[in-house]
Amino acid sequence: MNYLNNVLDDFIDGNHQQRLDLYMCNRNLRSDFDQIENEETTLQKSELIDSQQVVIKPAKTLGQQSFIIRMKRWCFSILS
After folding, report:
1. To the nearest whole number, what is the mean pLDDT of the chain?
2. Does the first or last residue of the chain, that is N or C, have fewer Cβ atoms within 10 Å of its Cβ?
3. Who contacts 70 (Cβ-Cβ below 8 Å, separation ≥6)?
4. Sign, CA torsion 59/65/71/75
5. C-alpha span between 33 and 39 (Å, rounded)
6. Angle value at C-alpha 66, between 60 and 68, nearest 5 degrees
7. CA-based angle 16:2:10, to the nearest 5?
């Protein structure tokens, strides 16, 4: 492998600080670094969308519920 491939591999495997150092030291590879970052960001976003959990929120909060529903809950809370 040549030097450029080693640098790109180090960038892919590196943490944020290592990536920043490589980005600053290798001006000729910045477009390649940007492309790697964009691909990883796109991949992370697609994984996030695939793994999101659907949460169904109640239509009304306690303060917006009708008076009858609040009274019913109050009565049941006393009985239990």
Report:
1. 77
2. C
3. 62
4. positive
5. 10
6. 135
7. 15
Quickly count: other Cβ atoms within 10 Å of residue 11's Cβ: 19
The alpha-helical segments, DSSP class H, found in 1-80 are 3-13, 16-25, 30-51, 67-79
Can you state the angle between helices 30-51 and 3-13, rounded to 10 degrees? 30
pLDDT tens digit sequence for 19-44: 889 989 998 998 998 998 888 888 77
Distance CA 11, CA 23 (A): 8
